Amino acid sequence: MIENPDPAGTVAIVGAGITGLTAAFHLARLGVGSVVYEAGSRAGGPVHSVLRDGYLAEDGPNTLLETAPEIPALIRDLGLADQCLHANPAAANRYIVRDGIPKPIPGTLAGWLTTDLFSLPAKIRVLGDLVIPRRREDAPEESVADFVRRRLGSEFLDYAINPLVAGIYAGDPERLSVTQAFPRLDAVERRHRSLFLGQVLGARERKRSGQIPRANAPKLSFVHGLGTLVSGLLRAVGDRVEYDSPVTALSRHTHGWEVESGSGSGQGARRRRHRAVLLAAPAHRLARIAFADGAGNSLDWFSGIVHAPVTALVFGFRREEVAHSLDGFGVLVPEREPFPILGAIFNSSLFPGRAPEGHVTLTCYVGGSRNPDLALAPADQQCPLVLDALNRLLGVRGRPTFVHRCVHALGIPQYNLGFGVYRKRMQQMEESAPGLRFAGNFRDGISMGDCLVAGLRVAQNLAAPITGI
Ligand SMILES: Cc1cc2nc3c(=O)[nH]c(=O)nc-3n(C[C@H](O)[C@H](O)[C@H](O)COP(=O)(O)OP(=O)(O)OC[C@H]3O[C@@H](n4cnc5c(N)ncnc54)[C@H](O)[C@@H]3O)c2cc1C
Questions:
Q1: What residue's CA is closest to ligand 1, atom 21?
Q2: Which of 302, 300, 299, 291 has its CA nearest to residue 252?
């Protein structure tokens, strides 16, 4: 039995993560109906804030980078501007561990010349970027590690890019593709040859386009954490979300798409027709959806996209039991350093209200491509290792006053070498099947900001043939 046969103009959105919800919100503003199918019992994916015992812990993301003008616009449109927090400017330092000691990343030329984060030969080698030729157009795809070694030298790779990549992708620079994972870096080399020159010459272009480089982008959250963004979207489009409704099959019919979803009410599968469908569930879940577009395509190949497992461990401590000044965003750990964490965020330095008076909150990330087994290890193995690392790195003594843990077994999609094939395939499928769209962190960039912008763009794209605007 097919319910809702051919409702003119509704879009099926698969997944109530930040991408799917933003798309539903923009479709509504464009006058287009949608049903958001969500496999689980809550929306937002990893974007989830936990308030307990006076602490605020984030399951997944801790900061939303304002990399595009659409991001503050969405916050305003949702009526959340008065709850939005900008990271404390006094917490601008970022630390990288070298020889067991967190060292601030230099932010000025003088700081760069005097820092002992890099050796003198490494500093001289970095300047090689000014004279090194650009990569040949016909050269094979390059990993992030090969790109950085070639342009900036191996010490810069080990003590700057390796930890930064762990902080963004929980990924391995030897496997990540520079073109796919850091397209702007790749584009700067193509256009300006030197990264330094590109930085200077590209500034004016970026200003004109409204794009803000990640490094300078304001870091945002909300009084009650990033979950506020999900609640705001749900206030606007929550009536469109159907929970416990995993989509299991999609097939194309004459005027659109038939969606089969499992029903949480125990009444078996449900089938409904929609004019268009947006696939915004994680790649590893898309791979499980039976798919018939009449052209012999399937979604099985999504299982080839690698995901890095990450566990977030959030600890509270009495302030006096942490020796480090915590005057920054956090600390990143290079792979060469013998610590079991990818890094730690100094949450209570960044935003107010993250810990009770006289206490601090630290969020540690464990695992990633570097150490996948540790991400999935039980809490009683992980916690002592992480507490020992915090003791050695930040002088944390005493027992934590708060612990929260969230395991993301298939946490972050990796734009590894060869990833371009997946992007091309999505594009080809969209071109051959009207009304089919893919958006989310498996395609548009892994940051929340990327997902928000993707949700907006894909909504415009889906609405155009329906509204004729
Ligand atoms: C530990 C961690 C830390 C992070 N830190 C940051 C950070 O600080 N800053 C930042 O910008 N980004 C960060 N990210 C990345 C960012 O949070 C994610 O990339 C982004 O939230 C993904 O959004 P999405 O909409 O693409 O997918 P998701 O949020 O994964 O949403 C997909 C939804 O689809 C649902 N679903 C699955 N299968 C089906 C199905 N068959 N039918 C229907 N629904 C289905 C899922 O239940 C889920 O709700 C972090 C991620 C992790 C894991």
A1: 448
A2: 291
